[in-house]
Design a protein that fits this description.
single chain, about 300 residues, alpha/beta, Rossmann fold, 15 strands, about 40% helix
Length: about 300
């Protein structure tokens, strides 16, 4: 199987490329940089084929997909700086990447009759209530620009293609790039106490584990919407931080605060990021491991 992966300079794209290599598939990485710009960790992604690609350039996207003629495009590239997306001078660019760029890839996939995986987010929902969001729920009410533009990307994919997987994830962490765990480890090294919100509830997603699931998916025709995070139940960012420090052996004191007490964020965050993942097992896919196990494996890379 030949697979073009966008956003390989990020956390998930990096791991998808390595998973493809592990299974003997042909992976072509792409990103906006002239050459692969992710972590030089010695994994296969650093030496696999790479093409510079600006996904907001519709002609360039079509040309690249026609040239490489993949069986599937796994679209990981996105604007993910949630607070920065709220700036007036950034909104147009965010929409061009998350909505326009995704539409460009969807149209190119239609032209070449190839599958597409679009990585979306819990932020397409308003985050109210306590019930887990179902993957086929259409009650969209994004709270911020990031969530709105990711939703527009979803609609571009579902409105253009029949052979697509839309996979919503949350609280992402991986080796290649910045994430919450790395930030908390850095803070824990230099501070005796840290304040963390305890009223936003969800489950973390380790990109190493998610990459395995995505490669499983693209080998099938079980198209549609899915939710995928690690197993182990729903937790708060406070709970997550306590477990990070426990496993890392830090004695940093973690103080629970409400989102209102914490302040700082430009973009509104969903309180309820619980994602119902039962569709995975219903469709015959293997769920991701427990998030505590995923955290332990990730910490060994740090």
């Amino acid at each position: 199987m030949k697979v073009l992966v966008t956003g390989v300079g990020g956390q998930l794209g990096h791991d998808v490329m390595n998973e493809l290599f592990k299974r003997g598939h042909d992976g072509i990485g792409s990103d906006i940089a002239a050459a692969y710009a992710g972590t030089a960790d010695g994994t296969p992604v650093t030496s696999m084929p790479y093409v510079q690609l600006d996904i907001t350039d519709r002609d360039a996207v079509l040309l690249a997909i026609q040239q490489y003629n993949p069986d599937c495009v796994v679209h990981c590239a996105a604007w993910t700086a949630v607070d920065l997306a709220e700036d007036e001078d950034k909104k147009e660019k965010v929409r061009a990447i998350n909505a326009g760029g995704t539409a460009n890839i969807a149209h190119a996939c239609k032209e070449t009759d190839c599958k597409m995986v679009y990585i979306s987010t819990d932020y397409v929902f308003d985050g109210q209530g306590t019930e887990p969001w179902k993957p086929d729920c259409k009650d969209y009410k994004p709270l911020n620009v990031y969530g709105q533009t990711k939703l527009e990307g979803e609609l571009a994919v579902s409105g253009t293609l029949e052979k697509y997987f839309i996979v919503r994830i949350a609280w992402v962490f991986g080796v290649n790039g910045k994430n919450f765990i790395k930030t908390m480890l850095n803070v824990g090294r230099t501070h005796d106490t840290v304040r963390v919100v305890n009223d936003q509830i969800g489950t973390p997603t380790y990109t190493y584990d998610l990459a395995r699931l995505l490669v499983d998916m693209i080998g099938t025709d079980k198209y549609g919407y899915y939710h995928a995070t690690n197993e182990g139940g729903y937790i708060s960012w406070y709970d997550f931080t306590c477990e990070i420090y426990r496993q890392a052996g830090y004695d940093t004191r973690v103080i629970p605060v409400t989102t209102q007490e914490y302040g700082l964020s430009k973009a509104a965050r969903p309180f309820n990021s619980r994602l119902d993942k039962s569709k995975l097992t219903e469709m015959g896919f293997v769920p991701l491991p427990d998030w505590k196990d995923a955290l332990a494996r990730f910490l060994k890379t740090q």
